[in-house]
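Changelog-adjacent note: as of this version, every example in the card shows the full chain rather than a window. The one below runs 468 residues end to end.
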Amino acid sequence: MKPIKNPETTHGVIPPQAVELEDAVLGALMIDSNALVQVVPVLRPEVFYKKKNQLVCKAILSLVEKAAPVDILTVAEELKKLDALETVGGAYAISQLTNAVASGANAHYHYRVLLEKFFKRQIIRIGMEGASKGYDDTEDVFDLYDWIQGELEEIEMHIGSSSFMDTKSVFEETLKIITNKEDKTTFYPIGDPGIDNTLMISPGELLNISGKSGSGKTSFVTYLAQSLLKRYPKKVAICWYSMEDSASKIMMNFISPTVKLTNAQLHGKNYKLSKEEFASVELASREFQSYDIEFFTKPAFISHIKAHFQRFCATRPDKFNILIIDNVMLLKDNGAYRFKSRGVEVDDHIAGQIQNAFTSTKNDYDINIWFLHHLTKEQLAKSNFVEGYRPREDQIKGSTRLRDVATQGILIHRPGDGFPDITKHYKETDYEGPISKLMIGEVFKNRDGHTGFFRYFANLDYKIFFPI
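Full-length structure tokens:
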């Protein structure tokens, strides 16, 4: 990562740093092999503020790469080979670093403090350079946006690489899971055998839900969300990014199956609610208001969604927090790349950000991320008739990374809707109605190994799903 251009002062203020801790960390690495094992996986020279400490860090990393021992003598010798021993103050300065610390017991914590200072310096640098570029009329605004986002993503990658656990921490975490010391819920059944036996909604899952336009993806997600909220009203919280539907429409989707009224009827389209119906709507609305949901209905960048979801979880540390992105095609990232060819670079960027949001958040909180996506036009080709137009995993739009990053994946299919080649054979029979209401969900990916189908008679007008 780029260093700050003027590391001594920024507008007359010394940038964030902790030079005493820098000396302590480097000293600990030279006297304590356990500290070295813990810190080296994330050790970076640029994290250190003092130039001489950056050089010492380079020497330590060089020794580690050679599988050589790390101590005062070997570090001094390596600095001599790098022609940097005199720059850092000679062998005496190296010995002084070890005098700054009695043991390496706290090196792991001290290095995290140095990381925080480093990240602040980087944010200051990006802000200063970004402001300078912003005042330059020769700078293209979209190039500036790409530069800022690239710099921030580099920080995020560094933060992600800084999340490490030693074997003792892994053992303790594993023991907690085995003995269930914390009484944490590891599975949230919704009461639907098809879902519960095939999908398993558990903390730490990233779910890709794909289907053709109009297949009922949003209705299905509403069904899942409402089932969870009804069964676990005090435990589940949802951060819902609906960039296609208004929050009011989603609320109506929740109310509709309870009051047996369509969205059009609730909107008053050629229909007037009776007193009894209005009373049932009010009752259902009160139940809806008890749910812990935050709605966002304007297109957003995936990086903004990620940052908001992390804050959302931080205010609900004891809940099962679900992020819903409906749908990835409407993210503002797509628009930001409008002067570039729409292709894998955009999809890979979005997939990477979703995965980063997932991995960086699931370590600290119980979460799920559900993102909705579309299928390619090839899914509707006549050649697929032999399979009843059944969608396939390779027909999900865009880069394969959008399905690869998911831990679970569902393809939504309604063979009786929009496929007259199938339904025409059942005209004027008792089967036409059921087939037109049939919805099939195919779990094509599940890291626990469970794949298969679940089936519904789905009345999307009333948002009602009957498992079959």
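Structural remarks: The chain is about 50% helix and 15% strand.
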